[in-house]
Amino acid sequence: AQSVTQPDIHITVSEGASLELRCNYSYGATPYLFWYVQSPGQGLQLLLKYFSGDTLVQGIKGFEAEFKRSQSSFNLRKPSVHWSDAAEYFCVVNPGNNRKLIWGLGTSLAVNP
Amino acid sequence: DTGVSQDPRHKITKRGQNVTFRCDPISEHNRLYWYRQTLGQGPEFLTYFQNEAQLEKSRLLSDRFSAERPKGSFSTLEIQRTEQGDSAMYLCASSFGGGYSYNEQFFGPGTRLTVL
Hints:
The structure holds 2 protein chains of 2 kinds. Chain A contains no helices and 12 strands. By secondary structure, chain A is mainly beta. Chain B is built from no helices and 11 strands. Chain B has strands at residues 5-7, 10-13, 19-24, 31-37, 44-50, 53-57, 65-68, 75-79, 88-95, 106-107, 111-115. In chain B, strand 7 and strand 8 (75-79) form a beta hairpin. Chain A binds chain B through residues 32, 34, 36, 42-46, 49, 51, 90, 94, 97-101, 103-106, and chain B through 31, 40-43, 45, 48, 50, 55-56, 91, 93, 97, 100-110.
């Protein structure tokens, strides 16, 4: 069955530290991949997306993600975290123009000053 | 900004009452989705429209729930005889689908429902 796994439920980092949020998917082919962020009281916002081509994709707010086919992973990274990055992060898969997205359970990020 | 809008943003109702939420998608988007999100969880798919046709419904959508998109533009989600378990954030999203669409969905701010 198609699935998305975000192994870390909660992560706490210090402001200025680097960040990596993990995402693994289960699908036979290369899906379309997204990371969404949901800040407290805010709607879901698309951070970045991968469809094809360069496996390192750049997104908004200084985030990037790398698609690794061999590991079925699409990890989100940021070199230096800001306090405003505290939010819930969702890895999402669209398995080939399927209209129904598959959502991970989310990783909650806390940022210490 | 012509993003997805939802109305109302908050709704408090008593158990047993009916409620209706509205979603206005991005104007050129032909696909519209409804999700439900409870605290600490990701969005759960409820239903999906392509233009005015409702093409898919989740098993989560009991017979108390109904959604419409009469003219292929805005959509309404109605919950009849609300129960406390219906308390959640109801999210609407839209996308442009068809051909080589990648189905990137744009979300509204949500309607938070509290059933007392």
